[in-house]
Design brief:
The complex is a heterodimer of chains A (about 110) and B (about 110). With about 110 residues, chain A is an all-beta fold. In chain A, strand 4 (about 30-40) and strand 5 (about 40-50) form a beta hairpin. Chain A has strands spanning about 5, 10-15, 20-25, 30-40, 40-50, 55, 65, 75-80, 85-95, 105, 110-114. The relative contact order of chain A is 0.33. Chain A has no helices and 11 strands. Chain B is mainly beta. Helix content of chain B is about 0%, strand content about 60%. Chain B is built from no helices and 11 strands. The chains are: A mainly beta (about 110), B mainly beta (about 110). The interface of A and B includes residues 45, 58, 99, 102 and 108 of A.
């Protein structure tokens, strides 16, 4: 089954404790991205990647890192989480290298930083 | 980056009525305009999209219209049903910027 898989789905952590949210897709998509969703603010892009070893900042990259060592995986890293990073995070992928096609979303990861 | 404005933020209708959600964008080079539906607790999913070489596209009860000159596009839902209740996001891609989403419209359909 074609899908985007994120883990963990739910996480409660404390300020400053490094964490990684994994994202994997099995559709051989070139384009992958991370969004955060906050009430009233919609979906805001954190980072995106058009290919292996090619990543770039989105609209809200501060406090986040990503890597794209393999085509299928695009982990989101929070080196030192802070409470303002409490949010619902979605990974998404697209066949179109510029993201100009359907985005397939993972189920979301709800993160709480205390 | 690209500036996408979506209105209204909340829309309440009676079952059977029509619903219209509008989005405007700023980059005239944008060429792909999808709409996503997000049910409560679920992930966003594509429901319809349109490219800049087309003015209108329909799929059963939903349709999207695009006015490239005015830089706006709209989602139309006819004969609304309670299961249409969800948050709807417009998005814009192509041109100079990465895909950008509007802030979403919460549609409530009252039985």
């Amino acid at each position: 089954e074609a899908q985007v898989t994120q883990n963990p789905r739910y996480l409660i952590t404390v300020t400053g404790k490094k964490l990684t949210v994994t994202c994997s897709q099995n559709m051989n998509h070139e384009y992958m991205s991370w969004y955060r969703q906050d009430p009233g603010l919609g979906l805001r892009q954190i980072y995106y990647s058009m290919n292996v070893e090619v990543t770039d900042k989105g609209d809200v990259p501060e406090g986040y890192k990503v890597s794209r060592k393999e085509k299928r995986n695009f982990p989101l890293i929070l080196e030192s989480p802070s409470p303002n990073q409490t949010s619902l995070y979605f990974c998404a992928s697209s066949l179109n290298i510029l993201g100009e096609g359907e985005l397939f979303f993972g189920e979301g990861s709800r993160l709480t930083v205390l | 980056g690209e500036n996408v404005e979506q209105h209204p933020s909340t829309l309440s209708v009676q079952e059977g009525d029509s619903a219209v959600i509008k989005c405007t964008y700023s980059d005239s080079a944008s060429n792909y305009f999808p709409w996503y539906k997000q049910e409560l607790g679920k992930r966003p999913q594509l429901i319809i999209d349109i490219r800049s070489n087309v003015g209108e596209k329909k799929d059963q009860r939903i349709a999207v219209t695009l006015n490239k000159t005015a830089k706006h596009f709209s989602l139309h839902i006819t004969e609304t049903q309670p299961e249409d209740s969800a948050v709807y996001f417009c998005a814009v891609a192509g041109g100079s910027y990465i895909p950008t989403f509007g802030r979403g419209t919460s549609l409530i359909v009252h039985p």
